[in-house]
Amino acid sequence: MRKAHSGRGGVLAALLVCVASALANAQLPAEAPGMGETPPPVPTASTVEAPALAEEPLPYRPPSFPKMVLLDVGHVAASPFHWSGRDWLLVSASTAAVATLSLADESLSNAARERGPALGFVGDTLEGLGDGRSFVLLGGFYLAGLIGRDSKAKNVFFDGLSASLIASGMITPLVSTLVGRERPTQDMGGYAFHPFEGRAFPSGHTSQAFAVASVIATSYDQLWVKVAAYGAASVTAYRRVQRGKHFPTDVVVGAVIGTAVGRSVVHFNSKLRSGEKAKESSRARLTILPVLGDGTYGLSATLSF
């Protein structure tokens, strides 16, 4: 009897050992990384880096109209510092030609006043291109561009305003005040100069008309547009001589100023709009110009940025 009890006790002991061994093995991972090795850390949200996304460049936006005008003023004012030897030679030759033409100023002026055709309604209308009525023409381009979604027509409006401001609003008044030439109607001769008093040289109406005409002619490739634009401006210049407001050299120099400024503004603004001058437009630029007028003398500082 004692042997049978001993056998049953051995069986129970063996079962207890098996159960303990199974419990011990259940607490271990199925595949350990290795004896004595630390398992690799599990990546967390703070250690996972997302792939860097390439930043797309922002689309280029041309400068606003006020800033573009400031850049135009700086560009025109700085132009003589960038002239080549050929440019200076052309300026010198033009100056000599104007000086030679001035010898015939009085005779040509008298001939136009006494025997020149008045051109009637056409002459009176086109003479208005030299004053505020030229802005009506520019406004027509803007309206046409707005209705027809024509960016070129709208650019003519903005370029024409800028060229007018520079040519007839800044350069011509400055030069005419410094030179002080008297008008033909004063009957003081072609060489009567009174700085800060006379206002004849160069012609402001002519510079205004040719500034607008050159913007239109430079913006379009059609020959008839160029002929019509410069032809209308030439009528303005002729009418100023025929009415005794200016000598021929006054309108010639006014035409040169208006044409040079208008063409320069169109080419420069075209580069600004295309982004070719983007870096240059982002730089700050200070322009200082003298201000001379009726009882007003000083300096005008313009900062573009």
Can you describe what's shown?
There is one protein chain. This protein has helices at 2-26, 65-78, 85-101, 105-115, 120-127, 133-148, 151-179, 204-219, 223-242, 248-274, 278-281; strands at 285-293, 296-304. The protein has 305 residues and is mainly α. The protein has one domain: Vanadium-containing Chloroperoxidase, domain 1, CATH 1.20.144. It has a two-stranded antiparallel sheet with strand order 1-2. 30% of the residues are buried.
Order of helices and strands: HHHHHHHHHHHEE
Uncertain segments are 1-8, 26-34, 280-284
Q: What level of helicity do the residues show?
A: 55-70%
Helix segment count? 11
* Number of beta strands: 2
Distance between the termini: 114 Å
Question: What is the rounded Rg?
Answer: 41 Å
Q: Report the sheet-strand fraction.
A: 5-15%
Q: Please identify the top-level CATH class.
A: Mainly Alpha
What is the fold named in CATH at topology level?
Vanadium-containing Chloroperoxidase, domain 1
Strand numbers in spatial order across the main sheet: 1-2
Estimated structural class: mainly alpha
Q: What general form does the structure show?
A: globular
Q: Residue-averaged pLDDT, rounded?
A: 79
What can be said about the biggest beta sheet?
A: 2 strands, antiparallel
Give the count of structural domains.
1
CATH architecture: Up-down Bundle
